[in-house]
Amino acid sequence: MEFIRITSIDDAYFRQMHDLMGRVFPPEEVLAYDLWAEPLKDEGLRVMVAVHEGVVVGATEYRYYPEMGVAMTDFTIIGREGLGVGRFLAEERQNDLFRWVEQSGGRLTGMFAEIYNPYLVEEHAFGGIKPMDPFVRREVLSHLGYRRLDFPYVHPSWELNGEAVSGLDLCFLAYDRSIRELPATLVAQFLQTYYAIQERKPESWYEMIRRLESVGTLQLLPI
Question: Is the dihedral angle over the CA atoms 55, 140, 122, 203 positive or is it negative?
Fold first, then answer.
């Protein structure tokens, strides 16, 4: 299996990846094909695919924010069972991220990730791919060391229509396992930076940011 970076929408692997995204994610989580052109050129972003015998069987997108010392896993897709795609992506992503941080002379305290809460949202079938089942994905994140941040989370839809998307948890993987909480202002700063590309955001998102800016810390709880 190969771990290949995508930097253009003209890459044949990007077409395969975008089609895979459309099969496993609901529409509000998938950015339109043409709108990927500029983000793929961003040096602060990695869009990587797992390629097996010329076919994209998985993908992951992640980014690093040196000024905050944190990273974000935007998504991880396992497109085929029985190949060890999930472990392959997790290991390759971590190795690449650590090299990225070292080469930039930065630091890294941990990585954010959003995860569906199937106890709140049950209608997503995720293309019928069993490893993408939200119950399975939560257990995988838990095994990797992620914990959920203790606050009600919403995010703006990637359909860019200003609608709120709920039914998810924002989680964090702290590389120092003794960390039990995060400054709420750091979480607010991260979310404002991460979603700055979206001009239209729901009022519930702004209310969430205001609440984060008004409290001290957020507990990291088991998933």
Answer: negative
Whats the size of the chain, residue-wise? 223
Q: Strand, helix or coil at 103?
A: helix
Q: What is the pLDDT of residues 153-184, one digit of tens each?
A: 999 988 889 899 888 999 999 999 899 999 99
Please state, as a whole number, how many other Cβ atoms lie within 10 Å of the Cβ of residue 171: 25
Whole-prediction pTM value?
Answer: 0.87
User: What single DSSP character describes residue 195?
Assistant: T
Q: What is the CATH number of the domain that holds 134?
A: 3.40.630.30
| Total number of domains constituting the chain | 1
21-to-17, 46, 48, 133 alpha-carbon distances in Å: 6, 16, 13, 14
What 8-state DSSP symbol labels residue 33?
G
Structural domain including 170 reads: 2-221
Q: Are strands 164-165 and 168-174 parallel, antiparallel or unpaired?
A: unpaired
